[in-house]
Amino acid sequence: MPQVLSHQQLSEIADEFGTPIYIYHAERITEQYNRLKSAFRKTDASFFYASKALTNINILQHIRSIGCNVDCSSINEVRLALMAGFEPARVLYTSNNIAFSEIAEAVSLGVHVNIDSLSNLQKFGERFGHSYPVGIRLRPNIMAGGNLKISTGHNKSKFGVPVEDIAQVLDLMKTYKLHVRTLHIHTGSEIKDVAVFAKGIEVLFELIKHFSELEIIDLGGGFKVPYVPGEEGTNVELLGEKVKEEFDMMAKIYGRQLKVWFEPGKFLVSEAGYFVTKVQVLKRSGDICFAGIDSGLNHLIRPMFYGSYHHIENISNAEGLSQPYHVVGNICETDTFAEDRLIAEIREDDYLVFYNAGAYGFEMSSNYNARFKPAEVLVKDNKAHLIRRRDTLEDMLATHVILKD
Ligand code: LLP
Q1: Residue after which a domain boundary falls, among 265, 291, 310
Q2: Each residue of 184-212: pLDDT tens digit?
Q3: Which atom of ligand 1 has the smallest separation from the CA of 265?
Q4: Any residues with CB less than 8 A from the CB of 116 and at least 6 apart, and which?
């Protein structure tokens, strides 16, 4: 059974640090990493945590301490990873329409780089030639992922060099003697079906004959985790077997043993996170009962942005009779977390917990309506550590340039 934080632990932390609050469980992250390592133990696999899911530096330090590497989606994430103590060889920067200056900086910092456009690949060739190994992010034209916003590999997606442009990639490689070490794809987030990953592998295997210095196949992230109770996530053990099978076959055909890299975000931190809020107002309208909480789309935007499901429990009255509620926020537009959701009877001042809050929760929060972002707590060795204090008005004003009247 996976490790979980109990209602009592969550309530005590909310009492001590206030709400709304994000609470993360270090041992649960470790457990997920160990599951991946075990699932892929028969292959030469490495894992790079997609830090965009949750960048608090204490989380990065924990990820480093358990031996996992880190994947970055901006130069600031690269800088944070280095500040968290990762050696450059454990840091990967995967491009998505970024300025070439960021790629040049990543090279000067000594981290791995995946490039996603012909124009940046050309600039890379002009500047670095064969002197620095490079990865190429390809768009495999595969439809995958939980919804269109998080689906990145299909044939209308902005991500990666379209695989049909491979001839131009090869021209650039020849012209600049590029040292292409990695071929990369990331087809989407919340991919349950192992066959989708297998399809991606097949697309890349078709191409490896062109890349004599290739060492790594990077399959990106996207493992699905269960959000709805009883739902299944990606069967990573089955995927581990499948990847071994495919890579062994490829080794037989081409006589080359390649490494496989993954960039899991949600898989490592989603289930390790809890978001605890307080009910401020109960309001009845006909047969609807609104539970208005001290949060909104400014703190957890996934339900409004993607229609995502987050399981909600009343941790102050868990034994109460279940009733349907509309759980809503305090932001000045309709920010509904859940409609007609059965939750144990809610009273004002009760704490509601949102599960699966570790990935893309705090990270996508904002100060909309000039409200403070939540604080963050990390539970490690059974101790709760504050890892981000709540904002203050001074923090929010710190970047304003106040003109004289
Ligand atoms: N690698 C690359 C290149 C990515 O773009 C992403 C996610 C990942 C790895 C990690 O994917 P994961 O394992 O977390 O599914 N905000 C959305 C998810 C956006 C994912 C963006 N890229 C959400 O809350 O569902």
Answers
A1: 265
A2: 999 989 999 999 999 999 999 999 999 99
A3: 14
A4: 94, 95, 96, 97, 136, 137, 159, 160, 161
